[in-house]
Amino acid sequence: MGVQSVSDPHERDLRTVMCTVNGQLRPVQVRDESVAVDVRQAERADASQPGQVAAAFAGVVSLAVEVGQQINPPELPTPQSRP
Q1: How many alpha carbons fall within 13 Å on the CB side of residue 17?
Q2: CA distances, 41 to each of 13, 33, 35, 45, 62 (Å)
Q3: What is the residue extent of each domain of the chain?
Q4: What is the mean pLDDT of the chain?
Q5: Local confidence band at 41 (pLDDT 50, 70, 90 cut-offs)
Q6: Which residues contact 45 (CB under 8 A, 6 or more apart)?
Q7: Does pLDDT of 5 surpass 60?
Q8: What angle (nearest 5°) sits at the alpha carbon of residue 8, between those of residues 7 and 12?
């Protein structure tokens, strides 16, 4: 394995490092913490806060219920009602 090239920093403080792995050239995105960026970083869940949960997708989840509110699940189709 060897480093072939390192790009200039991108807008989100990432550099593309081209490495040779098993004889093949591979691009790897690496965060350059020495670069100051103006793009706002996405918030991440804080494990020390019990109400924060990490998600496997980008975006924001907004709750539309209140604490203690009863939620009724939707009725699922039965095998007889499927076309």
Answers
A1: 13
A2: 10, 13, 13, 13, 19
A3: 1-33
A4: 80
A5: low
A6: 52, 53, 54, 55
A7: yes
A8: 110
Strand partners, 21: 24
Assign 3-class secondary structure to the chain. CEEEEECCCCCCCEEEEEEEECCEEEEEEEECCCCCCCCCCCCCCCCCCCCCCCCCCCCCCCCCCCCCCCCCCCCCCCHHHCC
CA distance 82 to 76: 10
**Amino acid identity at 59:** G
Q: What are phi and psi of 75, to 5 degrees?
A: -75, 130
The mean-pLDDT minimum among 5-9, 23-27, 58-62, 63-67 falls in 58-62
